[in-house]
Amino acid sequence: MSITVVGSIAYDAVTTPFGKRERMLGGAAVHFALAASFYDRVHVVGPIGDDFGETDLDTMRSRDIDTADVERLAGDTFFWRGEYGWDLNSRETLDTRLGVFAEFEPKLSETSRACDVLFLANIQPELQLRVREQCDRARFVALDSMNFWIEGAREELLRVIGTVDCLVLNDAELRQLTAKPSLVSAAREILSWGSPDHPRGGPRMIVAKQGEYGAALITPEGFFALPGYPLETVIDPTGAGDTFAGGFVGYIAARLHEEDLSDELLRRAMAHATALASFNVEEFGTERVTRLTAEEIAARVRELREITHFSGDA
Length: 314
Ligand code: AMP
Prior knowledge:
By secondary structure, this protein is an alpha/beta fold. 36% of the residues lie in helices and 23% in strands. The protein has a single domain (2-308), classed as Ribokinase (UDP-N-acetylmuramoyl-L-alanine:D-glutamate ligase, 3-Layer(aba) Sandwich), CATH 3.40.1190.20. The strands form 2 sheets. Strands 5-4-1-8-9-10-11-12-13 form a 9-stranded mixed β-sheet, sandwiched between helices. A 4-stranded mixed β-sheet has the order 3-2-6-7.
């Protein structure tokens, strides 16, 4: 199997109570690709500006990520500035500059178009839709977005959500999208869009990210949740959601040729996603994940199984 991802490729300026970085490699597509590269070949689609460093491309290539569809355009790379207070579950966006994304026209290579699995990482929904249309053979398509686009490009976002299998959002974004008060009611509302008699079309599963509290999976058949891996030290949550998505979608891509998309498979994918995201937050930006090993991931997945297991009568 192979995975194609479109999303922001960025430079981030981030301040947390534990330090700051003025310009570090970031972006939803980058965090996703680094995580998913532990499971399958990833093709990244998106523009970079003439300020984007060759060493940052090498960071992706060193994990065997295909950057052939990363297009260099005249202008600035996407830039995001954010700040976290002591509550690392919420952050303030201080600046978002689309840069070369404003003019980007995705034209995918045949290899990227032929992907089995597609991830529409966080970026303008209109761009997500144009990539979705080109990857018409994908067997599994997931999408992430954020408040910025739910507010600013709602109609386009609803249109692209109608074309995917899986929606990955945090719980506040799910409430914002549906105007429903609880996570479960919001997820059920979105799942109802996917019913045959609904004009909009919609996903058949929802992954609700809940920061340090973990994540939940809601399907028409059921509900599954895992806590966040219990870390004593969290330095920078930036990219945790995309790293989570990379673990989730990557694990599915690696298994889809030999397994059906069962709830059992999805639960294991949630465990890998949780493990990956927990490494991401231990250091700034991509710093920890670029040094990660498959053995470390496997060990953390085993620990998660231990801490979430219980036995005996209810
Ligand atoms: P996460 O912490 O997983 O939500 O992802 C943070 C990443 O998303 C950062 O590396 C940013 O570069 C990127 N980002 C922030 N705002 C936006 C936006 N409006 N559109 C696309 N990507 C964004």
